[in-house]
């Protein structure tokens, strides 16, 4: 960035061109097979974004917008998976990037209800239970955690409840099943 700003900007430009070419072809050939489209691009870590905000605005969000415009042109919503503490610039990610929904949340950054409270009127929020909770706690704790979380976001639009990240193979089966059963019970499905 500092040593060779031209090279730095050029890398983002070339990557953006490649991503847009892939998305253009994908949308032409497969858009009708999907109801929502997404990609993962972890922009942050526990305390901040990985790059300065100005660099994300200048080099990353315009590519997001080109991709989300292609997705929206086919009448589909776009979901961004991004880990990290993005609060300082998440409004720009929504507005400049054109995203319709976000996935990934960790309680160590902010519990799911905080994301829903801040952005639930603008985008859909996917997530809910921190994967760490599924790994470290028993079924009764998981159930209470989920009920508390769902009670806190009730009445806010645009949520899809799941783990805050992927379900890795080290998540105990009992924790995963406790999550599924608790959500079904909270909704009155069982």
UniProtKB/TrEMBL annotation:
InterPro entries: Methanogen_methyltrans, UROD/MetE-like_sf, Uroporphyrinogen_deCOase. Residues 4-186 form the Uroporphyrinogen decarboxylase (URO-D) domain. SUPFAM superfamilies: UROD/MetE-like. Pfam families: URO-D (PF01208). It comes from the Bacteria. GO terms for molecular function: uroporphyrinogen decarboxylase activity. One of its GO terms (biological process) is porphyrin-containing compound biosynthetic process. This is Uroporphyrinogen decarboxylase (URO-D) domain-containing protein. It comes from Candidatus Alectryocaccomicrobium excrementavium.
């Amino acid at each position: 960035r500092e040593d060779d700003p031209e090279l730095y900007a050029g890398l983002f430009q070339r990557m953006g061109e490649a991503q847009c070419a892939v998305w253009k072809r994908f949308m032409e050939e497969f858009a009708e097979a999907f109801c929502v489209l997404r990609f993962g691009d972890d922009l942050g870590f526990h305390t901040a974004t990985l790059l300065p905000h100005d660099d994300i605005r200048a080099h990353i969000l315009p590519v997001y917008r080109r991709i989300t415009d292609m997705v929206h042109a086919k009448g589909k919503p776009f979901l961004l998976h991004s880990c990290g503490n993005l609060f300082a610039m998440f409004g720009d990610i929504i507005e400049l990037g054109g995203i319709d929904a976000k996935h990934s949340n960790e309680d160590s950054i902010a519990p799911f209800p905080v994301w829903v409270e801040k952005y639930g009127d603008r985008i859909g929020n996917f997530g809910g239970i921190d994967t760490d909770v599924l790994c470290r706690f028993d079924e009764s704790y998981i159930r209470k955690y989920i009920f508390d979380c769902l009670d806190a976001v009730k009445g806010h639009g645009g949520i899809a409840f799941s783990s805050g990240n992927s379900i890795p193979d080290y998540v105990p089966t009992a924790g995963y099943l406790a999550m599924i059963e608790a959500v079904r019970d909270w909704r009155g499905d069982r």
